Amino acid sequence: MTTQADKKKEMTAAELADEEVLDMARRILSEGYVCDNCLGRQFARVSTGMTNRERGHFIKEKLKEQELLEAEVSEKCWVCNGLFEHVEAWAWRAVAALRDYEFKTFLVGTRMSGLLAENEEMLWELTGAAYAEPLKSEFNREVGKILQRLLNKRVDFQTPDILILIDLNREAVELQVRPVFIYGRYRKLVRGMPQTRWLCRSCRGAGCERCNFTGKMYPESVEELIKAPVVEEFEAEDMILHGCGREDIDARMLGRGRPFVAEVVAPRRRTVNLQRLEEKIKESSGGKVEVFGLRYVTKDAVEIVKNVKAAKTYRFKLRLGAKVEEKHLRAALEGLKGVIRQRTPRRVVHRRADIVREREVYDICLIEFGKHPVVEIKCESGLYVKELVSGDEGRTKPSLSELLGVTAEVFELDVLDVEFELASSGDD
Fold this sequence. Notes:
single chain, Alpha-Beta Plaits, 25% strand, four-stranded mixed β-sheet, alpha+beta
């Protein structure tokens, strides 16, 4: 019984026996010994149903039948320099490099040597490249086929867990490991700690007397306290925290916590128990940081979290320059509802454009009246709450200080909520 594959090979054979193909093959072989892979690869687009090795062998046999090719003496192919004799050896080198890595998918890539690139260009100058497949495409495929068999893993051309890069110039196998991305929320339960590592302003991380040779302005950050357990669990090289905005150093992040994505760099393990990781982060941070709702997501989640404009709710205590009546304070707070015009605050103007921005206060209310009144505010992303209270020497209008007619400032600021939730479509 003739199968579909048999019919395909019969059609391929007829195409490869074409006079133009045989004449071109004869000219290629007149330059010196060319292996079956490299010969067949020059006609990869002429036919289907065969490997390049099979295609090359078939063409050579046809040339011998027509007495257009003498019996060959097997030498080192001048095109690939014998590369295709060592495909399996390269596959085993890749297996050794992958030994300590957890992964489901892979892709093989090749960094060509200068000699092989020149040889291929010389061949294409001789015959043209109209029907040819690049050498490294075939090499990638042939190594990949062996690895699929040896590893029982799947090739993924879009987002492989690991890219196996064969560097023919250095005769080395390199691994490019796709990061793991984890979405969750963190709570920062102490003041005086930045979200991310803050380099020393004097030495820019090199280490000096000002920073006690740590290279940092602050000894700890939310990112560093989360990173240590994550790196340990995933056996990773690093972790980068991508937050949905950031709270001030002297502010706590309470309530449901701030959304973030942890980018786990070059992990040897790709799956860990995330609930156990949450517990480990809390324990190792000494209760300074907690994380909740960890789940695996795709890289797209980073841009979503970093660029979303989420409404925020804050609670803070007021320090007033003079006594005010409760009713006057309530009236002044009411006057802050609506659109606020803020020129870039003096404390951040060194790193942000000095422009006027409009932001909205959705709601603001007095929670507790006393020596230091407690206020809650819900506002648009990007509103500077401290300057809304102080006025920042007239750069924010209206401000609580302006409406009360006394100096006012925030202390003990807490973020209570960041109104955002990543859709489940971001899952990996």
